[in-house]
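User: I'm writing a tutorial on reading structure tokens. Could you give me a worked example: one chain, its sequence, then its tokens, then a sentence or two explaining what the tokens reveal?
Assistant: Sure. Here is the example chain.
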Amino acid sequence: MATTIVFVHGYSVTNLNTYGELPIRLREEAKQAGLNIQVEEIFLGRYISFNDDVRLNDISRAFKTAVNEQLSDMLNAGNRFVCITHSTGGPVIRNWWSRYCKNSDKPCPMSHLIMLAPANFGSALAQLGKGKLSRLKSWFDGVEPGQGVLNWLELGSAEAWELNKEWIISNGKQIGSDGIFPFVLAGQTIDRKLFDHLNTYTGELGSDGVVRVATTNLNARYIKLMQPIPTKNENGFEVIEYNQAPATATRVISGKSHSGDDIGIMKSVKKELSDSDSSETLKAIINCIRVTNNAQYNALTLQFINETEQVQQQELVETEKEIFLKERDFIHDKFSQVIFRVRDTEGYPVTDYDLILTAGPQNDANHLPEDFVVDKQKNYVTPETLTYFFNYNIMNGFPAIKNSKGEIIRDAIEKTESMGLEIYPRPDNGFMRYLPYKIKANADLLQKALSPNNTTLIDIVMQRIVSKEVFRLTKVGDSMPTTNEGDFKDVEPGNEIVE
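And here are its predicted structure tokens:
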């Protein structure tokens, strides 16, 4: 049976040349592997992401119509397509699947979703993309910056949170021959030629210059913490929910960045079979397409885990050589991303708060290792969410690292045994207020929250404290209170609170 391939590009693309020669190369590689892919069965998707009014939901709705209309012959014949996405294309198709396939009685028209460098949990660059420089560039290019899509892509966005939480808490039955086979392929190499000194995220370790490995990975976790009722235990905590996502086949590809003609995971692929620089990417894609049942999927998932470990060991130390400059070593550690969302017991967002991480028996922030957090970003649109980017190797402990000359470039680091957190929300006084929330440093929270190459969503629910003075009943005697007796504009909140 012929295999139909649908390609879906990423954010802010305005030309089909973004796919490079990957579609043509894939057709040739498939022939070599014995897969039946014909050129007329490769579809290059195009969608509008550079209009400020277009949102991700709009794009997934339009994709549904495009599939129904332009792939109707294939669908009517009972066939399904393989979808290969790049960057924002991954969330677009996941959104489409969630809205139109997840609860459908009919089989999903897509059998495989192969995501190249997907921005599944967003990108740290999205927040910067809304700035003045981005708008000037878009103006000169004749397009808008695509505010609607950027809002989705900003770390900790409400839409991304819901899509990812839905996947994390699922039972995994959607993965299989009757559902879909999802895959993630991503690089962790920085293309120094594309590094922007005004935007250091383009050179962020643990990323491909645009998306972090941890943001691509669907093997995520969800934790819900509840602050106890103050009268019971002001400083305690309770984990009321913990979920791990169903295992998704994920592979780090060596030597690949997000974009670019030289080492971009998609754009750098050459059509000639002799192009060895792309063979690892093509082999991984072919392996994904070959999967037809759960046993094969599970086997490939384990294979990808082992291959990723090998790649990350090989790429641990990068030495950059520049003319007339001293060699510079970069340590490619494994990283973890944690997105905190703070709301209260009534579901209202808590947007003004300080969050402090602690460690050790004294619950001291100073007991955390140096450089354990490399970035912290609060969401502009939903400021109740705050994203931390952890250096997992530093938190988990790591042996001394030497460069190619045998010189120690980082001493051995001891493992951090516990982690806690303290939240100081505002308002902290008045008729409605919050109390501090302190979680004593413990090994369980550390183990649940930090996982290499992964993202964890942590919901923190604060008790919404309401003064009894917000509503009182005054018994009336034989006469109504005088103006002075009935005046309550200067009532103080007091210490009594409603249940």
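What the tokens reveal: Residues 335 and 391 are 5 Å apart (CA to CA). Residues 138-143 have pLDDT under 50 and may be disordered.
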